[in-house]
Amino acid sequence: MTKLWGGRFTKEAEAWVDEFGASISFDQKLVIQDIRGSMAHVAMLRSCDIISEEDGHKIHDGLVTLEKKAANGDLEFDVKYEDIHMNIEKLLTEEIGEVAGKLHTARSRNDQVATDMHLFMREETEEIIGLIRDLQRVLVGRSEEHTETLIPGYTHLQRAQPISFGHHLLAYVEMLARDADRLTDSLKRVNVSPLGAGALAGTTFPIDRRQTAEALGFDGIYENSLDAVSDRDFLIEFLSIGSTIMMHLSRLSEEIILWSSEEFDFIELDDTFATGSSIMPQKKNPDMAELVRGKTGRVYGSLFSLLTTLKSLPLAYNKDMQEDKEGVFDTVTTVKGSLKIFTGMIDSMIVQEKSAKKAVSTDFSNATELADYLAAKGMPFREAHEVVGKLVLHCIENDIVLAQCPFATFEEASALFEEDIYEALDPREVVARRNSEGGTGFTQVQQAIAKWKERLDI
Ligand code: ARG
């Protein structure tokens, strides 16, 4: 079989070697981007008088036919033609004849593949931002519903202070907002056109790179042809942002898994997002949350894989760079899938208000409140801490909680205690009073919800 680049070769390639070098099995995902890039390129070749009007139209029409076929899944790719770029050229030749060969004037697969990846990344980045917004909206909705539902807040996974469940969910809304901001910012570097850089050095033809950039909706062009074809920073950046998104989801996964356990019992997952056991009839496992937590590992893997692939690569294009695609494609699928799963899972989970309330009423998460109470009455906080620590110890020894101590015990501990101490120990009060900016106090949470509703157009 003669290759598109076969002129310099004296021997036929061996099929098994070709197969090893081919990328068509995965880069066919770029078929639409590849065709669109070619359409912009051929229009430019024509308007710059590099090819004739007639040839330009023939090529354009052929590409339109291929695009339609691609949309219907009617294109057949062949590993013989290595990658999506040469497969499309081959299919175009079948469609319109030898004139198809003019399409590759003033272009290389190196600027072509980079262009395809930039177009792909732009679309996917925008879609992922949309999915983040969907999840944020659901989280804000559930926060509003559960502003006054109390759960213990934790540090070191030890009960620390009671908090509003809504406040807890809003922490994830903030994290996701940073993720969306990072993606939006990355578009500055994604939406730049490498097309026209040629193989590495530019071209002798009088091309107009600005025209193709504009036709493809890019905001600008790479200013150095070597950089244009060898830059994969935008993919590294995506994998890094994707890793951060997964890290956030994996932290929420872990909480969902804990909360849905009998030990915590703060939520129950909808059946859709849980699975049973083949042997233990009582089980309802939080599989989807576990899977998202697990998939975080492979996304980190893709980031490290590409960083390592690019390390020490001399300029400009090297075939190593073909390895950029699978990890990126996989990460796009994983991040999108995980965001969708979470949107459904959070939307449908049942919050076990009663058992959450029981948790905050039968623990020592109100101990800080007691120390604050004394400190507010003038006792140095350190001393107050010591007094309350002793009271907690007394309670543990007598198997009671602070609110169950008779007033005499408080009086004995400090003369500053008054009867209103019981009110102060009520978890609702404890939460309501944490009204410093950004705190869990109900007024603060309501303000945060109002802010997010406005920002997210809810
Ligand atoms: N399939 C190649 C890739 O994904 C396209 C670029 C090939 N360029 C080359 N000079 N071999 O990187």
From TrEMBL:
SUPFAM superfamilies: L-aspartase-like
Family matches, as CDD domains: Argininosuccinate_lyase
GO cellular component terms, semicolon-separated: cytosol
Pathway(s) served: Amino-acid biosynthesis; L-arginine biosynthesis; L-arginine from L-ornithine and carbamoyl phosphate: step 3/3
Argininosuccinate lyase C-terminal domain segment(s): 364-432
GO terms classed as biological process: L-arginine biosynthetic process via ornithine
Name this polypeptide is given: Argininosuccinate lyase
Source organism of this protein record: Natribacillus halophilus
Gene expressing this chain: argH
